[in-house]
């Protein structure tokens, strides 16, 4: 309220340098007290109206006990003060979900707005360079609204005129630390307005066990883990191609196995075939019985990829002019080509002939396969362009823990790290960071943080056991 006015600065300009003959003192005009009183009264009234307008319920809660005491006696005011928290606690115990939706998150948002964001807004904006202090006056972006959900505070901000989204995305670390959060995600709400997400807690801090094998045979997005907001992480594999990049031990195996696990009933029903390429001879050999085709030797891998291209071209010829999208059936199942450590077959392949054949087949599959029901799920450790030149042919990408910050944009596309995909900062400790990933889907530029379930060796053995014993559920989606 007691902001410095521009005139206040002038009072301190008293003289020039001591040895000069010219001394000047700016004229200071005394403002009559009544003008100051009117200004402050006006500000007080405007503030009260604004408060009522923005927080009608909170204002009502604050005003009602005083009004009751004044009208009917203090006992009524006290009774209300006891009754309201009692009722709210009872409501929370009986129906937590409706309490949180209607009251809990609003109260929390109000409290966090006042205690965290309003209190620290001015220093954080000035120090981070998002606000300006010019001639005694602060020019700050406006804090429009704070809302809360189960995992984060969502802060709507009106940028200063002339600011760009990049000015904000370059300062996500300043914002996160300034407001006491571990990270900050920036999204555009509408022209001139941004939505900043500050996670309050990390629902992905604890490893997730492997998800149960679904009861229904479906090729639809496969549930493989949990997203940061607590909702299931569903990975689409039919109708797209997915590239998974991560340093060694980041959890690439978990993504591959969780996807296979989710597709298992559909494989049993004949709607999906999984073709596995395992040049490292480690990851996929474990579940060989689950795959329709399996290759480890580079020459066999080249043959297998060319076979997939053949099926793709045969289907393309048959579907031309008849159907534009593939519907999985027993006659034309969805073929998922899973490649573990694709760079072994491309960049690190010493046989030039094989390397050319494999790269050409992969490029053909990733450019033409999705409409005819042939998809590629490829994992790699090193996302540099020379390691995998066809990186951009994968519409959907997943970045697990990466070694360097520059690799994030290589995998997820330009600007992904600035928007909050801090894949290089994921903990290398397996229980804290393995399986945590940022994904960027073809349909959305915003990176999403999630953790995949951990499919252990015992889980894979169980999968093979139920699959070979034919004890999987065989309910087909939509049947
Ligand atoms: N989803 C997960 N949740 C928790 N821990 C995990 C998860 N996935 C993997 N881990 C842990 O990380 C270790 C390494 O995982 P994994 O072998 O899948 O990584 P990778 O990226 O495939 O490594 P590499 O490139 O060396 O094959 C596992 O032994 C396990 O302890």
From TrEMBL:
Keywords: ATP-binding, Membrane, Nucleotide-binding, Transmembrane, Transmembrane helix. ATP binds at residues 246-253. Residues 230-409 form the FtsK domain. The chain crosses the membrane at residues 33-53, 73-94. This is FtsK/SpoIIIE domain-containing protein. Gene3D superfamilies: P-loop containing nucleotide triphosphate hydrolases. It comes from Streptosporangium amethystogenes subsp. fukuiense. PROSITE patterns: FTSK (PS50901). It comes from the Bacteria. Pfam families: FtsK_SpoIIIE (PF01580).
């Amino acid at each position: 309220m007691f902001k410095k006015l521009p005139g206040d600065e002038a009072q301190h300009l008293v003289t020039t340098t001591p040895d000069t003959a010219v001394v000047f003192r700016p004229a200071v005009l005394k403002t009559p007290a009544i003008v100051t009183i009117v200004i402050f009264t006006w500000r007080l009234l405007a503030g009260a109206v604004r408060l009522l307008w923005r927080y009608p319920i909170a204002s009502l809660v604050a005003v009602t006990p005083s009004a009751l005491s004044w009208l009917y006696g203090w006992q009524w005011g006290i009774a209300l003060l006891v009754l309201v928290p009692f009722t709210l606690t009872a409501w929370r115990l009986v129906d937590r979900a409706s309490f949180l939706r209607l009251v809990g998150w609003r109260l929390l948002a109000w409290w966090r707005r006042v205690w965290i964001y309003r209190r620290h807004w001015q220093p954080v904006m000035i120090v981070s360079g998002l606000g300006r202090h010019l001639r005694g006056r602060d020019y700050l972006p406006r804090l429009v609204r704070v809302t809360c959900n189960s995992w984060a505070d969502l802060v709507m901000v009106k940028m200063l005129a002339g600011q760009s989204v990049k000015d904000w995305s370059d300062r996500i670390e300043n914002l996160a630390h300034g407001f006491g959060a571990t990270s900050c995600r920036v999204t555009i709400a509408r022209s001139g307005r941004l939505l900043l997400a500050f996670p309050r807690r990390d629902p992905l801090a604890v490893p997730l066990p492997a998800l149960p094998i679904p009861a229904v045979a479906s090729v639809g997005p496969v549930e493989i883990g949990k997203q940061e907001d607590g909702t299931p992480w569903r990975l689409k594999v039919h109708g797209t191609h997915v590239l998974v990049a991560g340093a060694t031990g980041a959890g690439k195996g978990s993504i591959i196995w969780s996807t296979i696990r989710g597709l298992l009933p559909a494989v049993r029903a004949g709607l999906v075939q999984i073709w596995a390429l395992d040049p490292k001879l480690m990851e996929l050999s474990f579940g060989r019985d689950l795959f329709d085709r399996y290759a480890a030797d580079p020459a066999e891998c080249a043959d297998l990829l060319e076979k997939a291209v053949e099926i793709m071209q045969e289907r393309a010829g048959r579907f031309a002019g008849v159907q534009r999208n593939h519907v999985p059936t027993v006659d034309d199942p969805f073929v998922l080509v899973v490649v573990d450590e694709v760079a072994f077959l491309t960049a690190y392949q010493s046989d030039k002939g094989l390397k050319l054949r494999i790269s050409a087949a992969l490029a053909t599959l990733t450019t033409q396969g999705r409409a005819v029901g042939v998809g590629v799920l490829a994992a790699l450790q090193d996302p540099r362009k020379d390691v995998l030149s066809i990186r951009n042919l994968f519409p959907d990408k997943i970045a697990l823990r990466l070694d360097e910050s520059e690799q994030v944009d290589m995998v997820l596309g330009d600007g992904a790290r600035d928007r909050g995909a801090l894949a290089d900062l994921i903990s290398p400790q397996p229980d804290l960071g393995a399986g945590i990933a940022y994904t960027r889907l073809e349909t959305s530029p915003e990176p999403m943080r999630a953790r995949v379930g951990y499919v252990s060796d015992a889980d894979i053995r169980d999968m093979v056991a139920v699959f070979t014993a034919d004890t999987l559920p065989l309910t087909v989606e939509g049947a």
